[in-house]
Amino acid sequence: MSGDHGLRSSISASLNALNQNSALHICLVGDEAAIRSSLLASNYDSARLSICHSPDVVAMDDLPSKALRYKKQSSMYRALELLRDGNVAGVVSAGNTGALVAMGCIILDRLPGVRRPAICAPVPAKNGYTLMLDLGANIECDAEHLYQFAVMGAALSNALDGRDAPRLALLNVGAELIKGTSVVKEAAELISADSRLNYIGFAEGNDIFSENIDVMVCDGFTGNVALKVCEGTANFIRGQLKETFMKSLYGRLAALVVKPVLNAFQKDINPERYNGAALLGLNGVVIKSHGGSSVKSFEAAIHQAARAVRGDLTQAIASQLHTTES
Amino acid sequence: MSGDHGLRSSISASLNALNQNSALHICLVGDEAAIRSSLLASNYDSARLSICHSPDVVAMDDLPSKALRYKKQSSMYRALELLRDGNVAGVVSAGNTGALVAMGCIILDRLPGVRRPAICAPVPAKNGYTLMLDLGANIECDAEHLYQFAVMGAALSNALDGRDAPRLALLNVGAELIKGTSVVKEAAELISADSRLNYIGFAEGNDIFSENIDVMVCDGFTGNVALKVCEGTANFIRGQLKETFMKSLYGRLAALVVKPVLNAFQKDINPERYNGAALLGLNGVVIKSHGGSSVKSFEAAIHQAARAVRGDLTQAIASQLHTTES
């Protein structure tokens, strides 16, 4: 346990989550003495909370390759080992995303049939959110990768929200079949040929926010750019509004109404902070909560991990991609 | 002359532009009788305004290939012929973008050395705007294409704003040299090897709005997605704000301050409406004003065309890419 806010918010979030879900067990991985001292004043069901000591932490600026080699005593490494060995059913981390992906691939391994793990996060949309993947784990993708992302995204939507037939779309530059790169067109054929998927067709950048799409599939380059453009646009609009507001007293009053809306959106889409981003395709449930997680958002990430475990996410992906391969 | 708003706004814009720039001559291409009747009540310097009759128009939903074949009597076709034959120095059109690109390629031809024409439009940014290209004319690009976009974008920035050394960035998923696709990395080498270009390095999606970048280069797939994500984000924020505002009287008052800011942004970044988008790489200055152009924005497109002509945009691109090729 590390994360920008240190132990405090992850421990508070864990205790809240235990209170809210009586079926939940949590193992806190980190410096045992520090964890114990943080827990001292709290009331909790000690039968459902254990501690696993790890002396080291992965820093937010550690290179993934170096973390993998030199941080075997870190809480991140240890937590993934617990998952690999069946001691826990899922891992939630607010640590370094690159290190988490790298360690996940080595310690947990990919599921059989999975060619590339992907990062999938919710982007706010009308009436809820759209799950979008990949968000940067795979910069260059072929059609088969995109097809696998569709399968994994659909499985996540099913596990998290219980959707039987999540509506899948492929991000493209137009809705017509003739549009797009050869990779996107070939991926569309692979996805629509799989009758287990509810593929609704190509979608465009603005459709991310549509209430008609549950899962938006794209390569990690496009996904990363799209998410950062979201963030940049929101930031830019905030700046323009602020300038307008500052011009009058009336404007300053208006700002009080607008600020919370923009702040909430900004927080939701900040790509440095994918809150509740799932690393899909690994042999185990791994959820990344953002580095500067508030108690509430870390709590949400814990519940998300629990839902993914209960929804048998890993098995769902394994069985569908295994079938595809054979 | 066609466009969603018909003749009225383009004629008013033309008369205003003639008043504002005494060096300007305008040739209105379209149905002569309709143009003459629109001009009846107006005062203007008839020595600087001529009319060229064309009986047909390209519709907004005409397929580019069909427009090219069947609309040789259209105002768009005729205007590009006037440019090709040296009768005018630039063309401004509010018509069908696809048809304009296709007709431009055939009637004007590409400049020697230019591999692909590109669509370049201003995206609002802090302290002004960032010129971004390509915005959808070229869905699959190699490193040489991106390099040529950089040259053409820099030439446009120079012609429009008189910048001697426009700051160029390549859109990527991170600022570090090791980031990105092989195409983007190779393009970075080509661009930085050209000492005439002021290349500042990789930039991310949120940097489009930065005041430190004059020209952002990307392939047409990424550019199209990025622009539509901008539009979608702005639209989504507007929707969220509206909901918040509607909850109280005070909120409804705040909406009055916010609405014009969001409307202006939305209009600027609507990809269906690239206002003042330049088609770069053709043998002549062609500016696309958006279909639903207001008088003011059509006027801006006319002034932009005039600046591009005065700044010798076509020659600047030709000489730099010709040198590169030889």
Task: Report on the architecture of this protein.
The structure is a homodimer of 326-residue chains. By secondary structure, chain A is of the alpha/beta class. Chain A folds into 2 domains: 6-111 and 281-290, Isopropylmalate Dehydrogenase, CATH 3.40.718.10; 118-272, Isopropylmalate Dehydrogenase. Helix content of chain A is 49%, strand content 15%. Chain A has 11 helices and 10 strands. In chain A, the strands form 2 sheets. Chain A has an 8-stranded mixed β-sheet with strand order 3-10-9-4-5-8-6-7, with helices on both faces. The first copy, chain A, has a two-stranded parallel ribbon with strand order 1-2. In chain A, helix 3 packs across helix 5 (97-108), helix 4 packs parallel to helix 5 and helix 6 (143-161) packs antiparallel against helix 11. Chains A and B meet through helix 8 and helix 9 of A and helix 8 and helix 9 of B.
Features:
homodimer, about 325 residues, alpha/beta, Isopropylmalate Dehydrogenase, 2 domains, eight-stranded mixed beta sheet, two-stranded parallel ribbon, 11 helices, about 15% strand, globular
Strand order of the largest sheet of chain A: 3-10-9-4-5-8-6-7
Total of helices of chain A: 11
Kindly give the count of domains of chain A.
Answer: 2
Question: Strand share of the residues of chain A?
Answer: 15-25%
Oligomeric organization of the protein chains:
homodimer
Distance between the termini of chain A: 39 Å
Q: What class, by secondary structure content of chain A? A: alpha/beta
CATH architecture of the largest domain in chain A: 3-Layer(aba) Sandwich
> Which segments of chain A are poorly predicted (pLDDT under 50) over 5 or more consecutive residues?
none
Q: What is the fold named in CATH at topology level of the largest domain in chain A? A: Isopropylmalate Dehydrogenase
For the biggest sheet of chain A, the summary is: 8 strands, mixed
Q: Which shape of chain A, going by the Cα principal axes? A: globular
- Overall mean pLDDT of chain A: 88
CATH class category of the largest domain in chain A = Alpha Beta
The count of β-strands of chain A is 10
The level of helicity of chain A is 40-55%
Spell out the helices and strands of chain A N to C. HEHEHHEHEEHEHEEHHEEHH
Q: Most extensive chain contact?
A: A-B, 52 and 53 residues
Q: How would you name the CATH homologous superfamily of the largest domain in chain A?
A: Isopropylmalate Dehydrogenase
Round the Cα radius of gyration of chain A to an integer and report it. Answer: 20 Å
